[in-house]
Design a protein that fits this description.
- The protein has 995 residues and is an alpha/beta fold.
- The protein has 4 domains: 4-324 and 486-592, no CATH class; 354-397 and 401-425, no CATH class; 601-834, no CATH class; 849-994, no CATH class.
- Helices cover 53% and strands 8% of the residues.
- It is built from 37 helices and 19 strands.
- The chain is globular and about 90 Å long.
- The N and C termini lie far apart (78 Å).
- The model is unreliable at 110-115 (pLDDT under 50).
- This is DUF2723 domain-containing protein.
- It holds the Pfam family TMEM260-like.
- The chain crosses the membrane at residues 7-25, 53-70, 77-102, 122-142, 154-172, 184-215, 222-245, 265-284, 296-317, 486-502, 509-527, 539-560, 572-593.
Length: 995
């Protein structure tokens, strides 16, 4: 037995080393897109990220960041390495999990108590360890898991928690007959507590663990016993999800409000009393277990306590929030706001088991739970959350078609034949569940991992054995590094393992199946995804691919069994089965390496630094969320880039906690110039101001309007149907007086624009309401007096710009608001007057474009969006120089654009045809026509493919290619190339015929 144990440990650590080396080689050296920049910044300084936070991850990330030894450029790669190591340890524990299950199969020991020290033969050892290696490596090289392993996100560590608790439970199963076996259950409880501070996905492993316990403790399992086990397991999961995580803080919040408001105690005494009471309950629980001699009660109490110990990592959230850090989302610094933070209340909720369908009409609104804030020495109700009431006949079981948003309804109709004004049937409801939520948003992801992935284009399908060859596909698909074909080998091997496991050891196969279902399809039911997602969500289901990887490993034993009649010798049979099994991880590694290798990708952080370096000193920058903001947070918080700039996230400006934070100093940035009193932007007040026309008011002075809002003036008040008073705005025509002499003295207007300076800015607000974020921007415009530069990121949606575009000045990657009106502004054309010399200085000298010219670096769909933004700005600058008659500078700009972003690494995009006319103007007609031909051919190929491949799913790609052809046509017309213009028109008419 000692020999097998040593080999099991040795091979396990070897597999771990392979995984670790793989992930460290392919690791992204900076902050990736989406939440990574936020998590790395919050790890480095222990800040408060978006709800519900990830304190365990942040604490470990902070420890890893200390190894940068002051070199802030190494912080990102170290936090990314935390994910890499979490992933490779997941692979290690998966290996040991598979070998434990495989040993039972090979030695025919489905019952754990039989011959626990039986030593396998060499052939059996090779088969067992080979199964572990194949399954673990297949998971290591699976698409979704590898993606999570090389970036600073929580999903790798979440997978580790799942792998560890499954492995520990199997260890307990083999030692359950020992007196001290319950220590393994207590360790599981602690890991679960810690995992709450990473991600809640780990809890879904508990039903499978419950059956391991049931089968081990029950001599003769029954169907009724199995049902009770499942029910009890689900109750435990629900108790942790609803009872411990938000439940205990909610009760503490109730104590706090009661003892402060009713008893008159100081703040926080209610929480202290609750904690003392909880400790007393724990004490008496242990005392009872000792007096009764109940091991079950004692173990249960220990499990509860150790979950709480692990869960206590969440204390970092209110503690750090109390120090007003620069990133402090939702401001959860007291128990009441902390509960809201844990419950993710800012994101709203979705109906799960029973609720309204998409065209349900509300019949009433009831006041729900109050939201308290501190005022004086009491808690007062700031607002009551409103609960919308629908008719019973408009509700249905398991509502999947629930969202009333017009875009969502349009996308529902792509999957189900529903009518906008007709209540969907249960059949249509379930059709959407099976076709979209399960089929498209789960099984498609599952097959990506074990069959093949078409490309990195969102909505991309699966590559089957009979799929078209890469030469027959558009370049964006067939030529993509993300086009991976595994020949279905991992899937087939996993199905062999599933069948063999079910035949040989039905109980453990059922347990693995439960793990597979609860970390896969059960999540689908819980998430109730809408028909549009901002990105692919495959990372959510890595627990399910983990479970299937167990069967891939056991498939090696199944292959050996199939070979038994041909190969009699155990060692030879095991060797052949292992060789065949290694084809699965081998082809997955070979196909997946190039599109998972991020080792030389710097685009996200460079885009953030370039945006910041576009701005004048002490600037205010309005951004969107996620990819537009989190890299900026990383650049400022970790690398200290341009901390004089205050980044203001537009969606957060609809909240009072964020506005209050913007009124504080942050590093070199002074508070934002917000004049309104806090009570006028508290949540529930001035959330939106409707447009209620007053014909007597033709225009409104912005400064006077902001003052009237701050005074809650009766002149702006209107009554709603519920009798509630709201502030409104009487006209869409606004103006802002400008002290032109002071503006001229400040020097903010370029010399060539001085004649464009206006004595007052005039614009039409448009829209039917002013949201709180718009009100805050208007307040700053009125209060700032042009003291601080105010910018919109060029990626902000036009609807948030409030029709201020005639006063925009483009200086790089952002638009500055100036009291100078662009005389050539055309709402159908480009936005912003191009400040040529300033923009040239920024883009040609300050900006970094690391490795955007390297065709060996893989840039996925998200990574290609910002380079497209660069191209558009280079084209704008080129056109501005040509308009000024400076062909030399125009050519320099174009040369730079094509040098730092050649087609070989960053394929030509929609903006590229804008260079065609300028290229001809500087004498490079051949290059111009090559661009037109290349883009026409690619668009033709792409449109032909999408028109025959479920084109309704690829509306964005079709529209992009049609717009590209339109841009090609316009460019060809500009250079008088009638043949190329005619070809573009022909294709446009073919794929987008005139009505």
């Amino acid at each position: 037995m000692h020999r097998y144990k040593s080999l099991n440990n040795l091979i396990g650590w070897l597999v771990f080393a392979i995984a670790t080396l793989t992930y460290l080689i392919t690791l992204e050296p900076t902050a990736s897109y989406w939440d990574c920049g936020e998590f790395i910044a919050c790890s480095y300084k222990l800040l408060v990220p978006h709800p519900p936070g990830a304190p365990t991850f942040l604490l470990l990330g902070r420890i890893f960041s200390l190894f940068s030894f002051g070199d802030v450029t190494k912080v990102a790669v170290l936090v990314n390495a935390l994910s890499a190591l979490s992933s490779s340890f997941t692979v290690l524990f998966l290996f040991w999990t598979i070998t434990m299950l495989a040993k039972k199969l090979v030695l025919h020991r489905a019952v754990p108590n039989l011959e626990p020290n039986l030593e396998p033969t060499f052939g059996q050892t090779l088969l067992i360890l080979g199964a572990g290696a194949v399954g673990a490596l297949a998971f290591a090289f699976s698409d979704s898991f590898w993606f999570n392993a090389v970036e600073g996100e929580v999903y790798a560590m979440s997978s580790l928690c799942t792998a560890v608790v499954v492995w520990i439970m199997l260890k307990w199963e083999n030692r359950a007959h020992k007196a001290d076996s319950d220590k393994w259950l207590i360790l599981i409880a602690y890991i679960i507590g810690l995992s709450i501070g990473v991600h809640l996905l780990n809890l879904l492993a508990l039903p499978a663990l419950g059956f391991i316990y049931y089968y081990r403790r029950t001599a003769n399992p029954t169907l009724l016993g199995g049902i009770l086990t499942l029910v009890v397991s689900m109750i435990i999961v629900g108790s942790i999800l609803a009872g411990i995580i938000p439940g205990l803080p909610t009760i503490a919040g109730g104590f706090e409000v009661f003892f402060v408001n009713s008893v008159g105690l100081p703040f926080n005494w209610g929480v202290i009393i609750f904690v003392l009471l909880l400790l007393a309950i724990i004490y008496f629980g242990f005392r009872y277990s000792y007096r009764k001699g109940s091991q079950l009660v004692n173990t249960g109490m220990l499990v509860f306590v150790f979950i709480l110990i692990g869960y206590s990592s969440y204390l970092i959230v209110p503690i750090r929030s109390g120090f007003n850090p620069t990133i402090d989302e939702n401001k959860p610094d007291d128990v009441l706001s902390f509960v809201s933070y844990l419950k993710r209340e800012q994101y709203g909720d979705r109906p799960l088991l029973y609720g309204p369908q998409f065209n349900a009409q509300p019949v009433d609104q009831l006041e729900g739970a109050p939201r308290y804030v501190r005022e004086g020495d009491k808690y007062v109700i700031a607002e009551r959350r409103l609960e919308t009431i629908y008719r019973d006949e408009d509700k249905m079981l398991l509502p999947r078609l629930y969202s009333p948003q017009p875009d969502h309804i349009r996308y529902y109709q792509k999957w189900v034949d529903v009518q906008k004004d007709v209540k969907p049937t249960m059949g249509q409801n379930l059709s959407f569940l099976f076709r979209y939520q399960m089929g498209h948003m789960y099984w498609r992801y599952f097959l990506w991992n074990f069959v093949g992935r078409e490309s990195d284009v969102q909505q991309a399908g699966v590559v089957w054995l009979a799929s078209a060859s890469t030469s027959e596909l558009p370049v964006r698909i067939g030529g993509s590094k993300a086009h991976n074909n595994f020949l279905a080998i991992p899937l087939i091997l996993g199905l062999v393992g599933l069948f063999f496991h079910s035949q040989r050891d039905g109980r453990n196969a059922f347990i693995v199946g439960l793990l597979f279902l609860f970390t896969g399809l059960a999540i689908v039911l819980y998430l109730n995804q809408p028909p549009i997602e901002p990105r692919e969500r495959d990372y959510t289901f890595t627990g399910s691919t983990y479970a299937f990887a167990i069967w891939i490993g056991l498939g090696v034993i199944g292959l050996a069994e199939l070979l038994r009649s041909v190969l009699k010798a155990d060692t030879v049979r095991a060797g052949v089965a292992l060789a065949l099994g290694l084809l699965a991880p081998g082809i997955m590694a070979a196909q997946g390496w190039d599109d998972h290798d991020r080792s030389d990708r710097y685009s996200s952080v460079d885009s953030a630094k370039n945006l910041l370096n576009s701005l004048a000193p002490n600037a205010i920058l309005f951004t969107n969320g996620d990819n537009d903001t989190f890299p900026l947070w990383y650049a400022q918080e970790v690398e200290g880039v341009r901390t004089d700039v205050r980044v203001a996230v537009l969606s957060y400006l609809n909240t009072d906690w964020y506005i209050e934070q913007m009124r504080r100093r942050a590093y070199k940035s002074q508070p934002l110039p917000i004049s309104m009193k806090p009570q006028n932007y508290v949540q529930g007040t001035n959330d939106y101001l409707p447009f209620v026309e007053n014909p007597a008011v033709q225009q409104v002075n912005l400064k006077e309007f902001v003052q009237l809002v701050d005074e809650n003036s009766p002149l702006l008040q209107v009554q709603t149907q519920s009798g509630r008073s709201l502030l409104s705005f009487p006209t869409k025509k606004f103006f802002l007086p400008v002290d032109t002499a002071a503006v001229m003295r400040s020097g903010i207007i370029p010399a060539e624009r001085r004649k464009q300076l206006v004595p007052r800015m005039e614009w039409d607000m448009g829209g039917g309401a002013i949201e709180k974020k718009n009100l805050v921007i208007l307040d700053m415009l009125a209060s700032n007096n042009w003291q601080r530069p105010i910018y919109f990121s060029s990626t902000v949606v036009p609807s948030d710009m409030m029709n201020l575009q005639p006063y925009f000045q483009l200086e790089g990657m952002a638009y500055r608001i100036l009291p100078a009106r662009d005389p050539n502004y055309d709402p159908r054309g480009n936005e912003g007057y191009v400040a040529k010399d300033l923009m040239f200085e920024n883009m040609m000298k300050k900006f970094a474009f690391r490795n955007l010219n390297d065709p060996n670096v893989y840039y996925d769909e998200n990574s290609l969006r910002f380079p497209a933004n660069y191209r558009e700005k280079f084209a704008r600058l080129t056109e501005a120089y040509l308009a000024a008659g400076d062909k030399v500078k125009a050519k320099q700009v174009m040369d730079k654009a094509f040098t730092v972003m050649p087609d070989a690494s960053i394929p030509y995009d929609y903006y590229t045809p804008q260079f065609v006319g300028p290229l001809v103007a500087v004498g490079e007609r051949k290059k111009a026509t090559d661009i037109l031909d290349t883009m026409t051919n690619r668009a033709q190929q792409a449109l032909a493919y999408y028109s025959t491949t479920n084109g309704s799913l690829f509306e964005m790609e079709i529209q992009t290619n049609l717009l590209t052809l339109q841009s090609v046509y316009q460019a060809a017309e500009q250079i008088k190339d009638q043949a190329r213009a005619a070809k573009a028109v022909e294709l446009l008419n073919q794929y987008y015929p005139r009505q």
